[in-house]
Design brief:
globular; 7 helices; 201 residues
Length: 201
C-alpha cells in the first residue's frame, strides 16, 4: 500500500484476514435461516455422505449448511467468486454417468473433496487443497472461516466431542463444495435418470 507521499505503508495481513473472515461469518449468520432449493438441500442432508461422524448428526448438517452459505456469501463479497470452478463439471459428469442422478453425483464429489482437503491451513501448492482451485478469496480465508464457524457452534456444547474438533472442518467443506457443484453444473441442467446434461435451446 502506498501513502500520500508515495512511500510504502506496512499492512497487517493478519488483521485484514481476521476482518474479512469476521465479515463473511456475520453475513452467513444473517442468512442462516435460508434453505437451499430442495434438490440441493437433499444433498446437504445426505446421510450416506457422512464425512465426520461422531454423536451429533445435527451439528454436521448445521456445518454443512454453513459451508454452503459461505460460498453464497463469497459471491456477494468478491467478483472472482462469481465464477464457477471450471474443473468441476467434468468430475460431476463422470459421476453422473455412474449414478444417473445429480444429487448422488454432487454428494459423492463433495464428499470426496471434503475428505481429501487438508485439515490444517492449506498450502496453495498442495494438490489436495481444492479450496484453492475454486475462484474467490482462496484456501486460507476458507480455512479460517470454517474454524470460526466451528468455534461458534461448539460454544453452547457442555459435552466433549468424541472426535477431534478439527475434523468438523470436513462437514463445512462438504457444504462449500455442494454449492460449488451447484454453480458448476446446476441440477436443472441435468436430465435425471439419464446422467446427461440438457441440450442448450
Amino acid at each position: 500500500m502506498v501513502d500520500e507521499r508515495g512511500g510504502l505503508i506496512g499492512v497487517d495481513t493478519g488483521l485484514i484476514l481476521q476482518t474479512l473472515v469476521e465479515n463473511a461469518f456475520a453475513l452467513g449468520e444473517k442468512r442462516r435461516a435460508e434453505r437451499p432449493p430442495d434438490a440441493v438441500a437433499a444433498v446437504i442432508e445426505a446421510e450416506e455422505q457422512v464425512v465426520v461422524g461422531g454423536d451429533d448428526p445435527a451439528l454436521e448438517h448445521d456445518l454443512r449448511h454453513a459451508g454452503y452459505l459461505a460460498r453464497v456469501v463469497e459471491a456477494e463479497m468478491f467478483e472472482p467468486a462469481r465464477q464457477p470452478a471450471e474443473w468441476l463439471p467434468d468430475m460431476l459428469t463422470e459421476r453422473l454417468t455412474l449414478t444417473g442422478s445429480w444429487a448422488r453425483a454432487a454428494a459423492a464429489v463433495s464428499g470426496d473433496l471434503a475428505r481429501s482437503e487438508p485439515l490444517a491451513k492449506p498450502s496453495p501448492d498442495d494438490e489436495a487443497a481444492m479450496t484453492w482451485r475454486v475462484p474467490g478469496p482462496g484456501g486460507h480465508v476458507r480455512h479460517y472461516l470454517a474454524r470460526r464457524t466451528i468455534e461458534d457452534r461448539l460454544l453452547p456444547r457442555d459435552q466433549p466431542l468424541p472426535i477431534d474438533p478439527a475434523e468438523l472442518k470436513r462437514a463445512w467443506l462438504y457444504g462449500f463444495f455442494v454449492r460449488a457443484c451447484e454453480e458448476a453444473l446446476p441440477p436443472e441442467a441435468v436430465l435425471e435418470g439419464e446422467g446427461e446434461a440438457k441440450p442448450e435451446r
